[in-house]
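[[Per-residue structure]]
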Amino acid sequence: MGIFFILIYLTIVMVVIEINVVLFTLTGLDNNISRFQVISMLTGTGFTTSESELIIEHPLRRKLGAFLILFGAFSLAVIISVVSSILSDNFRTKEISYLAVVLIIIFYILKIPLSKKLYRNI
């Protein structure tokens, strides 16, 4: 049940990212800059670029940025809480092993030349 909650919550986080990218774009910011800045504010990393001035100097972007920073901190706390509650019953070695295998498979799929070719075309 906890893993399902994490997937739902990560979906919510992804939707929040997309909504804020659209909002930043509507305020006149380039789409690529918007996406990077939204993810940077949400995760609390990389927001020290010169592009951050584009956020700080605009009143609506500044409010959206404050929301993202707070939502990111809250989200981190929620995820840590859920993961610790999942692990508190037992170590869930089998489930974590499945996750590791899935991540390894994804990694190797991304290393396939066809995947690289598709990724370069994006």
In short: The chain has two domains: 2-89, 91-122. The radius of gyration is 18 Å. Residues 15 and 66 are 17 Å apart (CA to CA).
